[in-house]
Amino acid sequence: MVIAAVGPEPPPSGRELLAAELRRLRELSGWSGRRLAERIGISQSKVSRIESGSAIPSLPEVKRWGKALEVSVETQERLVSLAEAAFTEVHPYRAALQRRGHLQDYVHEGEQRADWVRTFQSEVVPGLLQIPDYTRSVLALGETEYSPEDLAAAIGGRLHRQLDLYDPTRRFDFLITESALRWRPGSVDLQVAQLDRLSNVATLENVSVGLVPLDRQATAQLSHSFVLRDHRDEEQEDSVVVELVHGLVTLVGAANREPYEARWAKLAGMALHGDEARDFLAESIAHLRRSRA
């Protein structure tokens, strides 16, 4: 079955509901964005981003927003509930694909705003490091059956995301398990080419690749994959994106990020880095080449 890229609009997200309500309350009060920004201690540009749904305000900011506009206790409580819901957003693939043929541009929208991207991948080579034929094979094994046009666009979109790796002002760190390196969605030649690509990208000064071997004593569980996105701009919210079978879960707020920060630190301690990682990757490539001899 092919999941069509058209269909009914999915319901608004928690972020969109909060943005709409905050904007509605400000407009009802007759306040300008500039006046509100000055009163609650944020920039006018952040007010605009909050009301457009491109940024999520913190709970203290939401409370100050309501207090400045002198909303009722019931409205203030509703705003807090909306904000808490917006801190954890679920994006099912099926619903997202009703509006577009693939999700690479959608992922890139959030990814390109981050100055530091940390990716833990326990299952496959991360998308930012994939070669086209590896991506094609991975997508073919997923739950979504793409049309030929959408598949080509998805591969192109993933390659376009990789241009960010060559921006020296941004940082990309990867932790990849040995299982992810060994999982082979295609031929041995394809896997060799993919690991060669990984080895080459690891030479970039703003990219670090840590490899988590299976024969080291574990200090952390090898859980589902996740991505930490950090921003130098304090008005942009740092986030975690968790990859699940049915979709993506986006988490914001320090309390939500804390378990993932702790898990990242433990996994980084288990990983091989630098020369050790390069030697491990070279041996993995050599093993593959020997297997086809």
Strand content: 5-15%
Say how many strands there are. 7
Radius of gyration: 22 Å
- Name the average pLDDT: 88
Order of helices and strands: HHHHHEHHEHHEHHEEEEHH
Biggest sheet character: 7 strands, mixed
**Largest beta sheet: strand ordering:** 1-7-6-5-2-3-4
Unreliable spans are 1-8
* Distinct helical segment count: 13
**Which range best describes the helical content: under 10%, 10-25%, 25-40%, 40-55%, 55-70% or over 70%?**
40-55%
Structural class: alpha/beta
Folded structure, characterized:
The protein is α/β, with parallel strands linked by helices. The chain has 13 helices and 7 strands. Helices cover 50% and strands 14% of the residues. Strand 6 (239-243) and strand 7 form a beta hairpin. It has 2 domains: 14-86, 434 Repressor (Amino-terminal Domain); 90-291, 2-Layer Sandwich (Endonuclease, Chain A). The longest helix has 18 residues, at 274-291. A 7-stranded mixed sheet has the order 1-7-6-5-2-3-4.
Question: Which labels suit this protein?
Answer:
293 residues; 434 Repressor (Amino-terminal Domain); Endonuclease, Chain A; 2 domains; 50% helix; disordered N terminus; DNA binding; Cro/C1-type_HTH; Helix-turn-helix protein
Could you give a short description of this structure?
Pfam families: DUF5753, HTH_31. It is elongated and about 75 Å long. The chain has 293 residues and is an alpha/beta fold.
Task: Give the helices and strands, then pairings.
Layout: H1 14-29, H2 33-40, H3 44-52, H4 59-68, H5 73-86, E1 88-92, H6 93-96, H7 104-111, E2 116-121, H8 132-140, H9 148-161, E3 171-177, H10 178-182, H11 188-201, E4 207-212, E5 226-230, E6 239-243, E7 247-252, H12 254-270, H13 274-291
Parallel strand pairs: 2-3, 3-4
Antiparallel strand pairs: 1-7, 2-5, 5-6, 6-7
Domain HTH cro/C1-type: 22-76
Pfam families: DUF5753, HTH_31
Protein name: Helix-turn-helix protein
